[in-house]
Design brief:
about 50 residues; mainly alpha; about 65% helix
Length: about 50
Amino acid sequence: MADDKVGPTGLTVAESEEIHRSLIQGTQIFGMIAAFAHLLAYIYSPWLK
């Protein structure tokens, strides 16, 4: 199964795809929380008005 390894990390294709999915999902969740926090900050202390 040495052919299944990806690059210098030694991860398999399935392992690297799983890590990638988790990273993307974490980034999306962080982005949603950040957008919500900015919305709350705008509502409670409107700037540029």
